[in-house]
């Protein structure tokens, strides 16, 4: 068993102290709730007793006894009134006052035995026995919440009655004395059991109240934390939207489907036309999900745009991206990515220069139905320190009817209810069997959704399609006229960069 944390021990002790304090408060409230009624009942019974035993009693003693019972009952009423003005404050002090007056009240009632010289079988003796034992038995319903108070009340009259049965009655009644002692033991036992049950009930109620209060407090704290988090997310979302401008589903030769797992996307998709008259696309997949992953793509977006404005070479761009991510983030944060640069040709094809670091194979579906793969030949960005980072590019030629596909692993790793992944083989087969070549991307998404059914995604999902002919036209429109661009007359062919 692990040792208890000091803070936990302090909290537990404080909770126990609070429970005991509340228990005493509830116990005091219960006792004082019955006090006025029991005090008035005592005065009424004393008055009735005064009438019944007055024939056999010594007048002065009886008057003195009645006065003492009335006085003590009046003090108990006064105490109940004082408590009513300041309920719940210093409960132990009120309990001590209650027990003291209860003891005095029991002593006053025991003095009834001294008011007459009674024979063993006289009506007054029988009545006195009935009154004292009845008072003691009846008080259990109003005092046994607190056994000490009940015992303080019954001890003087019952012990006094036992002594009176042995010494005061003529003749002595030992059987009556033994019966009284037995009754005393039974009443004491009953009072302790009653108090124990009452305390358990109170403690259970108090614990439920405290639990509900803690739940309400925790709920309020969670609601406050949620409001703070939502506000921070709103700010973060504003910043992300300002930095990241997601492309439309169709944007001048680029088709894209972006499906974040959470509000913030750990995939980044950027595209731009450089001042050199080339189209550049960057697709990245940061480790993790949500805001933590989305933060990692911010420097990538800023670096991509800044380097494009300077018309710097792709190799310098990818080196700068790696260096920034390596410097800014811990070693367990990196960015699997691909950088694609397309240079238009006069035949509406494009020469592609591709860097792939840690992403799944890029797929080229040729116009004649063949399929080529461009494998990752580099580590993800942010793993190697800048001095050790040596980017390896691959150059390929894309005809006007060819299509280039790139995607994050959220597509291939999406699973159905049986835990089976969509996979690269199924993706390639879906691309090759699309009934409409112009809608391959939509066909892949339809088949992927049908495959996973109602199973939720476990990662951000991005899928893009590049159309060389449309991109070539887009570049010409961007620079104003095809004659202003130095277009190669033939394809570069496939070679390592």
Word description of this protein:
This protein has 497 residues and is an alpha+beta fold. It folds into 2 domains: 6-215, no CATH class; 246-496, Phosphatase 2c, domain 1 (4-Layer Sandwich), CATH 3.60.40.10. Helix content is 56%, strand content 13%. It has 13 helices and 11 strands. It has helices spanning 6-53, 59-85, 91-110, 123-138, 140-143, 147-168, 174-243, 290-309, 314-328, 409-412, 424-432, 440-452, 468-479, and strands at residues 254-259, 267-273, 279-286, 335-344, 350-357, 362-365, 371-374, 393-398, 403-407, 461-466, 495-496. The strands form 2 sheets. The protein has a 6-stranded antiparallel sheet with strand order 2-3-4-5-8-11. A hairpin with a 5-residue loop joins strand 2 (267-273) and strand 3 (279-286). Helix 1 runs antiparallel to helix 2 (59-85), helix 4 runs antiparallel to helix 6 and helix 6 (147-168) runs antiparallel to helix 7 (174-243). The two termini are 61 Å apart.
Judged by helices, strands and strand pairing, the structural class is: alpha+beta
Head-to-tail CA distance between termini: 61 Å
The CATH homologous superfamily of the largest domain is named: PPM-type phosphatase domain
- Report the mean per-residue pLDDT as an integer: 82
Radius of gyration: 46 Å
Question: What keywords describe this structure?
Answer:
497 residues; alpha+beta; Phosphatase 2c, domain 1; six-stranded antiparallel sheet; five-stranded antiparallel sheet; 13 helices; 11 strands; 13% strand
